[in-house]
């Protein structure tokens, strides 16, 4: 590497995962000098998406943040003899295999942040085709929009009316503070409320599993809140409330990194850090890397990228997320769920009488994450052992016992997290959290926002970046860009948008 | 447009640091040149409407945002490119030598369906300077050896050949599409906020 790298920065960020990239972008956006490095030769760390070949290599070599990796090639199915190990590997680069797959609520934290910051111009999405549930061992689509409810064959007329009535009630909940239900069910569970509405078992499953994503112990308030979140995200983009980033979730950290770079952030991949030390008052941190000492006022680091000398401060690396990844030659579920070459579908699975859950995301080639004719199934659950396949066994059994898709390849791995990720008292380094078990990016964004506000107390987190035409080219003062906070008109527009989303009925 | 043909062309500009990628883009879109060298701060992408074969298309030209400086361009940058512009500085032989690796890098990262016929255009920039080091012949030979890549010698400063080069870029990007009868690979892609963007000029630039 030609080493004309500056030696002094306001902020050095180690690791290009989602939260680190948010922080780097936010700091650069407010005019701080940022160096963003990663020990890997790719962006995204444990949030990245990989080609099939790179993914296998990753599973073969355990690292601090990923271990217990294994993969198996299965005999090509009779119906799809052309997909062999060789033909799959030939198309290696057509795959974007996510380590930490997520979907985003259309009106959720990620989408709001992307719009607010104007980073949305770097990203493209695919609307999820179906939100599914398992009912009597059958995979069925949960009707999302009003027209879905009317057209669905899975519900009877009476059930349709009940569901609409129930959802309308949830949607209106909270507007009337003296709502009878709110008073009657305060402190009780959402399930009790649902039962009191005398909905059928099928509708109860539908609401609990797919819409409110609750378990039996979830409180009435939580259930209502989640149902409302689901409803608020309807009718904005596609047929369901969810979006998936085109080419996989690994694109998202790169969008934030691009913004950071556009505002002057410097990027160095494949650069490892040997040690970090600091002055007694911790006002200046010294980072030694490739025989060079770099100075920074602050350092943010991903748990997997801490230099070996400092890692022990953050405790042991424990299994955090257990992941399964399957490549199949046929999709899950019937034709209805996979029109026109396959759906991008979401399914929440429960086991141990609702005590444990897993999330399944099916991707067809429309997601840009695999070749046409193939499907990727991402299975994710909180880890409770060092054996990801065993952690997921209850869920794979539910999925594959009846109507199993033709699986060509299966892989398992564990994502780790340090036991005291947030205990940074021993060092002045801010350590981000490992990917949490969550559907959307709420926790990751909250983590980034929290760290940012600790470092830059009074600054705005990712204010709107100016559009192309707003930048003056000649004789400009680059620092002037930083005063460009969200203009009044856009602030009003965003506000209207959020209001509209909140008031939206179960729209078409 | 009723057809599913693309009306947006994504063009990416590659090449070593300080060969003039941002200046070329700036000259083409804004007809401006700033002599003051600065690493690409604030350079993002430009959009410009162009007419090619009686068809109006929007060309979106993406700058590297300086991420090439330490070989750290991510795969997201390369996604869905319709044409790749390779730029070198005629006064810097190394920047010419590196065209090979930039081209390879593009083919690996973007992995276009038909790498043999993917449209590249090579620009030898800074021909206004006196201390030229790479001869036209040498550059042309290299371009010929790579499946006849169109070659232009430009000066972003003087505005020499810039318009013509980008017209070729737009034309070749579009032709590749019609030749292969390429319809949009991924219909129904969603861009957030696209409805809510303020009406901007057709020609604008983020650099």
From TrEMBL, chain A:
Cited InterPro entries: FAD/NAD-bd_sf (IPR036188), GDP_dissociation_inhibitor (IPR018203), Rab_escort (IPR001738)
Primary gene name: Dvir\GJ20912
Subcellular location as annotated: Cytoplasm
Annotated organism of origin: Drosophila virilis (Fruit fly)
PANTHER family: CHM, RAB ESCORT PROTEIN 1 (PTHR11787:SF4), RAB GDP-DISSOCIATION INHIBITOR (PTHR11787)
Name of the protein this chain belongs to: Rab proteins geranylgeranyltransferase component A
Family: Belongs to the Rab GDI family.
GO BP terms, alphabetized: intracellular protein transport; small GTPase-mediated signal transduction; vesicle-mediated transport
GO cellular component terms, semicolon-separated: cytosol; nucleus; Rab-protein geranylgeranyltransferase complex
Gene Ontology MF annotations: GDP-dissociation inhibitor activity; GTPase activator activity
Keywords carried by this UniProt record: Cytoplasm, GTPase activation
UniProtKB/TrEMBL annotation, chain B:
Coiled coil: none
GO cellular component, one term: late endosome membrane
InterPro entries recorded: P-loop_NTPase, Small_GTP-bd, Small_GTPase
Signal peptide annotation: none
PROSITE patterns: RAB, RAS, RHO
SMART domains: RAB (SM00175), RAN (SM00176), RAS (SM00173), RHO (SM00174)
Keyword Phosphoprotein: no
GO MF annotations, alphabetized: GTP binding; GTPase activity
This protein's UniProt keywords: GTP-binding, Lipoprotein, Nucleotide-binding, Prenylation
Localization, UniProt: Late endosome membrane
GO biological process: endosome to lysosome transport; phagosome-lysosome fusion
Family the entry assigns: Belongs to the small GTPase superfamily. Rab family.
Protein name per its UniProtKB record: CG5915-PA
Gene name as annotated: Dvir\GJ24655
């Amino acid at each position: 590497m030609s080493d004309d790298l500056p030696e002094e920065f306001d902020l050095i960020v180690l690791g290009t995962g989602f939260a680190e990239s948010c922080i780097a972008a936010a700091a650069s956006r407010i005019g701080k000098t940022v160096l963003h490095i990663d020990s890997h030769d790719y962006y995204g760390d444990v949030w990245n998406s990989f080609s099939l070949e790179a993914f296998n290599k990753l599973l073969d070599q355990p690292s601090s943040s990923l271990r217990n990796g294994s993969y198996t090639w299965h005999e090509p199915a009779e119906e799809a003899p052309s997909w062999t190990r060789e033909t799959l590997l030939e198309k290696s680069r057509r795959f974007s295999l996510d380590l930490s797959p997520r979907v985003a609520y259309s009106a959720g934290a990620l989408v709001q942040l992307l719009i607010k910051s104007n980073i949305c111009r770097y990203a493209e999405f695919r609307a999820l085709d179906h939100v599914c549930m398992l009912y009597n061992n059958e995979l069925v689509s949960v009707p999302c929009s009003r027209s879905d409810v009317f057209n669905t064959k899975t519900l009877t007329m009476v059930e349709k009316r009940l569901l609409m009535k129930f959802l309308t009630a949830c949607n209106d909940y909270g507007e009337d503070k003296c709502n009878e239900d709110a008073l009657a069910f305060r402190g009780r569970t959402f399930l009790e409320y649902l039962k009191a509405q005398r909905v059928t078992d099928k509708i109860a499953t539908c609401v609990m599993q797919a819409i409110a994503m609750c378990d039996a112990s979830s409180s009435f308030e939580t259930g209502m809140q989640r149902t409302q979140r689901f409803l608020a995200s309807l009718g904005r983009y596609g047929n369901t409330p969810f979006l998936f980033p085109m080419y996989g979730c690994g694109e998202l950290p790169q969008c934030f990194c691009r913004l950071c770079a556009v505002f002057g952030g410097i990027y160095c991949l494949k650069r490892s850090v040997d040690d970090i030390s600091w002055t007694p008052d911790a006002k200046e941190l010294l980072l030694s890397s490739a025989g060079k000492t770099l100075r920074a006022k602050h350092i943010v680091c991903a748990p997997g990228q801490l230099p070996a000398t400092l890692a022990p401060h953050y405790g042991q690396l424990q299994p955090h997320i257990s992941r399964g990844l399957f490549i199949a030659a046929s999709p899950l579920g019937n034709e209805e769920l996979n029109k026109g070459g396959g759906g991008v579908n979401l399914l929440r699975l429960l086991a141990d009488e609702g005590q444990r859950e897993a999330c399944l995301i099916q991707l067809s080639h429309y997601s840009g994450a695999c070749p046409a004719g193939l499907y990727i199934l991402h299975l994710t659950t909180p880890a409770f052992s060092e054996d990801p396949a065993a952690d997921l066994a209850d869920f794979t059994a539910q999925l594959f016992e009846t109507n199993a898709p033709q699986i060509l390849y299966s892989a398992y791995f564990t994502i780790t997290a340090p036991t005291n990720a947030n205990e940074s008292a021993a060092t002045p380094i801010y350590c981000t959290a490992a990917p949490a078990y969550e559907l959307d990016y709420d926790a990751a964004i909250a983590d980034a926002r929290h760290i940012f506000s600790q470092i830059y107390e009074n600054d705005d987190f990712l204010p709107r970046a100016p559009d192309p035409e707003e930048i003056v080219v000649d004789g400009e003062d680059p620092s002037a860009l930083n005063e460009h906070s969200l203009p009044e008109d856009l602030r009003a527009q965003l506000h209207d948008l959020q209001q509209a989303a909140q008031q939206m009925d179960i729209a078409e | 447009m009723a057809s599913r043909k693309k009306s947006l062309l994504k063009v990416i500009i590659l090449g070593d640091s300080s060969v003039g990628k941002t200046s070329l883009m700036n000259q083409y879109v804004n007809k401006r040149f700033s002599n003051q060298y600065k690493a690409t701060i604030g350079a993002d992408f430009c959009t410009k409407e162009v007419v090619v074969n009686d068809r109006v298309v929007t060309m979106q030209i993406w700058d590297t945002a300086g991420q090439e400086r330490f070989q750290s361009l991510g795969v997201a940058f390369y996604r869905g490119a319709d044409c790749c512009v390779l730029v070198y500085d005629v006064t810097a032989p190394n920047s010419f030598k590196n065209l090979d690796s930039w081209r390879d890098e593009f083919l690996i990262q973007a992995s276009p369906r038909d790498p043999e016929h993917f449209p590249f255009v090579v620009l030898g920039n800074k021909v206004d300077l006196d201390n030229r080091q790479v001869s036209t012949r040498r550059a042309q030979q290299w371009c010929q050896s790579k499946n006849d890549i169109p070659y232009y010698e430009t000066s972003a400063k003087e505005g020499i050949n810039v318009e013509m080069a980008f017209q070729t870029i737009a034309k070749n990007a579009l032709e590749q599409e019609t030749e292969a009868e390429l319809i949009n690979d991924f219909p129904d892609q969603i861009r957030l906020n696209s409805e809510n963007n303020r009406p901007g000029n057709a020609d604008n630039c983020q650099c």
